[in-house]
TrEMBL record:
Record organism: Agromyces bauzanensis
Family annotation (InterPro entries): Fe-S_cluster_assembly_SufBD (IPR055346), SUF_FeS_clus_asmbl_SufBD_core (IPR000825), SUF_FeS_clus_asmbl_SufBD_sf (IPR037284), SUF_FeS_clus_asmbl_SufD (IPR011542)
Residue ranges, compositional bias (Polar residues): 1-17
One GO BP annotation of this record: iron-sulfur cluster assembly
SUPFAM superfamilies given in the database record: Stabilizer of iron transporter SufD
Chain intervals for the UniProt region annotation (Disordered): 1-29
Matches recorded under NCBIfam families: sufD
Identification of the protein by name: Fe-S cluster assembly protein SufD
Transmembrane region(s): none
Record family assignment: Belongs to the iron-sulfur cluster assembly SufBD family.
Every SUF system FeS cluster assembly SufBD core domain range: 157-378
Length: 406
């Protein structure tokens, strides 16, 4: 099936039927919200979605006026400039088992992991000309870093496919730097028995806007560690969706973000348990400082009626460093079978732990340094799980630079 033909005929997210789940239309109109995440409308065609107003469930937390050109305007879908570095973590030598190339939009490998659920992703899907393909093969660990830069201020579209062959091992870093107005889709296909880590690293310039939808499909006994790190950019919205499609599949979804004054960092996470004995762990942590710093985290977990033996937990923690910030945190859990190992969710937003601060200051550490130590300890839990010492070191340095302004 080609990318142009891929679509899923489901109820529209804007006009669901009145009888759905027993609900009736409100007195002020025919709108009835879709109650189950899997029932949202999906399409690769931008014309299938109504214009974005900001009142839609998927956009109500977002500054939609800032990126109207990405949701409704024409996008440049030509190749974007990328640099790729392939190496083995142990000695830095070139590693076999990783290939980076370009494929046409009619390639059969496009459209296997997921389909857009909102207009920006559909606009990018309708606009791209070629997709960047990253393939990982072989049982030895290897790392590839793909850096996108020099995108400029014009609205652009991109599409990336990451494929891990059965029983392969690897780490793929997608890094964004410099100026950008980018809407993109990233497809991740993890084959049977494979173990893959994907890091989405946003280090854009201060005025950049980046909207991304990640779709992952996991095979039998496959493992995916998906990490979103958002530090730079004016508006950054990265929404990962993971389909645990076959028995024994396992995802660890992690996120780290640091919102400064006037910065909007958003993540809407979806994990769909669709097979028996699957597992998921979702942990996102963020810090906010400065006037109008804003973070949004929405976590949806759906345990389908065939997903017996599911083990799932999601959590979001936010640390507020100054006045004038706002953190929205919305965990959602849907369970369609009672035969599970466990499922839970948690959310917390708060200021410094005064006892921790007092403990450090009582031992002669100045208040500013004590605050940085507390924040560093709060956030580095995510960095330490990446599995690449070089990348972890660089992110710790970037985090330290952010903390110098706190």
């Amino acid at each position: 099936m080609t990318a142009q033909m891929t679509s899923t005929p489901q109820r529209s997210s804007n006009l669901a039927t009145a009888e759905q789940h027993g609900f009736r239309p409100h007195s002020d109109g025919a709108f009835v919200p879709v109650q189950t995440r899997s029932e949202r409308f999906r399409s690769v065609n931008v014309d299938g979605f109504a214009p974005v107003t900001g009142r839609e469930h998927e956009w109500k937390y977002s500054p939609v006026a800032v990126f109207a050109d990405l949701t409704s305007g024409d996008l440049d879908g030509s190749r974007i400039e990328v640099e790729s570095t392939i190496r083995e973590p142990q000695d830095g030598a070139d590693a076999p088992g990783v290939d980076v190339s370009w494929i046409g939009r009619d390639d059969a490998r496009i459209g296997r992991a997921g389909v857009p659920e909102e207009r920006a992703a559909a606009n990018a899907w309708s606009s791209f000309g070629e997709a960047l393909l990253v393939t990982v093969t072989g049982e030895d660990e290897k790392t590839v870093v793909v850096t996108r830069h020099g995108l400029g201020a014009a609205p652009r579209a991109a599409h990336t496919v990451i494929e891990a062959a059965p029983n392969s091992r690897g780490l793929v870093v997608l890094r964004g730097t410099g100026d950008a107005r980018l809407s993109e889709n990233v497809e991740i296909v993890v084959g049977e028995g494979a173990s893959l880590t994907v890091v989405a690293l946003q280090e854009w310039s201060d005025d950049a806007v980046h909207l991304a939808s990640h779709f992952a499909r996991l095979g039998r006994d496959a493992f995916l560690k998906h990490i979103v790190v958002s530090l730079g950019g004016k508006v950054v919205r990265v929404n990962p969706s993971t389909h645990l499609a076959e028995q024994g599949s396992d995802v660890e979804a992690l996120g780290l973000y640091f919102a400064d004054a006037g910065q909007h960092l958003e993540q809407q996470v979806f994990v769909h348990h669709d097979a028996p004995h699957t597992r998921s762990r979702v942990t996102y942590k963020g810090a906010l400082q400065g006037d109008a710093a804003r973070s949004v985290w929405v976590g949806d977990v759906l345990i389908g009626n065939a997903a017996t033996g599911t083990d799932s937990y999601e959590q979001n923690r936010n640390l507020v460093l100054t006045d004038g910030t706002r953190a929205d945190s919305v965990p959602n859990l849907e369970i369609e079978t009672g035969d599970i190992v466990g499922a839970g969710h948690a959310s917390a937003t708060g200021r410094f732990d005064d006892e921790q601060l007092f403990y450090l200051m009582a031992r002669g550490i100045p208040e500013g340094e004590a605050r940085r130590l507390v924040v560093r300890g709060f956030l580095t839990e995510i960095i330490q799980k990446i599995g690449s010492p070089e990348l972890e070191e660089r992110l710790n340095a970037a985090l330290e630079a952010e903390l110098q302004g706190s």
